[in-house]
Amino acid sequence: MRLFGLVLIVLTLTLGLACADRPREATWQGKLATVDGITVVSNPKAPLYGPGALELKEDLSIGEAGGANEYTFARAWYLAVNEGGDIFVMDQGDTCVKVFSKNGTYLRSIGRKGQGPGELQNPNSLHLTKDGRLIFEDFIRGLNVFGQDGTFREFLPATAFVDILVTPDGRIVARVNTIEGDRPGKEIRVFDSVLHQQAAFPFFPDEPRDPQVVKPFAGRFCWALTAGDDLAVSYEGGYEIDILSLNGRLHRRIRKEFDPVKISQEEIDGVKQRLRGRRADIPPAHPAIQGILADDEGRLYVKTYERTEDGKSLYYDVFDRDGRCLAKLPIPLTIQPQVWKSGKMYSLEEDAEGFQRVKRYRLVWNINR
To answer: Exposed, middle or buried: residue 208 (CB in 10 Å: 0-12, 13-18, 19+)?
Structure first.
């Protein structure tokens, strides 16, 4: 009996030490509230997981200095990735899309410069659908629709679009110039695959402009389509992201506490050199957000102005589909994230000599869930 008691004490101490060494499960410190039927998610400054919780590991690079034309980019501008992992690179300089396999092998080029059917004038973005379509946004004329095999299908004239997003099922979500009353602004409109309008919401008035005054550090309009075909939109200087359904209903608002990043004297001097006699309206700090991207699992990746201590990387705040801030991910200034898909990030990068590459990274979570 005495021996049994001794064994029990040893087991208890061992288990206690093991539990002490095991990382405790992180607890989100934010708040949830419902205001006028809208779920408001308020995040503290610190994310759920600490530094190093998420990192990127490079696993593919496309682009060869001095290589064949198929593997060089005159001016790579936009990326898209299909369900099979093929990579579509909009090369504005060559006025075409170069397609590569998931292993980085060149497959084909789609499109060419011109004004005829299937030809491109000023391609601005490209989008893929699950049924195999490739949609070019031609900023001057409208939308060119191809099969992902390169076959031209149709041209859809649409000159009023400022920019577009495309849902996996092929609906077009566009920002459009419009006027409400006597005030110009922008409106989001949703169209089916042949540009029949389905919804319109909300109106974003343009600020009155003085042609002699520039506002180089004003808050910008940022948006992304989420995995559930919702729209994430931010358009003010603060840290607030609205999640809207594609019929325009606002159902979630994500907020986060943040420390404003002061605008440096170097940035101010750079702006003044480009003013050409105009006056600059310069606030004391940057807005909170400078870009939003979303992945196929419902996460948001929010580009901020906060830099690492060495000044070489910007922090991206990573939110789960419920709006909780999970991690802060530092990404070097030389990397331009374009697509987050299937646990990977695809980017455009440029070296000191101006040579461009397309790269792919694995997302590695260093946490115990």
So the answer is: exposed
- 187 within domain boundaries: yes
Instruction: Give the count of domains, the chain.
Output: 1
Torsion sign over Cα 235, 240, 245, 248: negative
Q: Output the domain CATH number for residue 191.
A: 2.120.10.30
Residue 140 belongs to what domain range? 32-365
Residue 9 is assigned to a structural domain of this protein: no
Mean pLDDT confidence for 25-49: 94
pTM: 0.90
Task: Indicate whether 10 belongs to any domain.
Answer: no
**pLDDT, tens digit (0-9, with 9 covering 90-100), for 260-286:** 999 999 999 888 888 877 888 999 999
Cα 172 to Cα 87, 92, 129, 150, distances in angstroms: 21, 22, 11, 20
pLDDT (tens digit per residue) in 162-197: 899 999 999 999 999 888 888 888 899 999 999 999
- Name, in order, each residue with C-beta under 8 angstroms of 264's C-beta and a sequence gap of 6 or more: none
Inside any domain, residue 343: yes
